[in-house]
Amino acid sequence: MKMKILAFGIIADITGKSEWTIENIQHTDELKKHLENLFPRLKNMKYAIAVNLLITNGNFELTDGTTVALMPPFSGG
Asked: Which of 5, 10, 57, 77 is the most exposed place for a label (fewest CB within 10 A)?
């Protein structure tokens, strides 16, 4: 199972990339744990996870071909 990861703002700065693929992750909790192990600065940061353009709340199942976006906090003005 392969999915595309998109990172925005400071998350792209932390990871050093704005787009990459990842395999064999079953759900968003597992993805978050995996990313925080690779990039420890994410552990202390609040960020939203969107799956196929929908912001998720809680644990969300991931499927082959999914696009996941990692979005830092943002504010309007």
From this structure: 77
Q: Is 48 domain-assigned?
A: yes
Query: Mean pLDDT in each 10-residue stretch from start to end of the chain (77 residues)?
Result: 96 97 96 97 94 94 96 75
Distance separating alpha carbons of residues 70 and 47, to the nearest angstrom: 7
CATH code at position 53: 3.10.20.30
Residue 35: which domain range?
Answer: 2-71
49 strand-pairing partners: 70
Place of tokens 């792209």: 12
pTM attached to this predicted model:
0.91
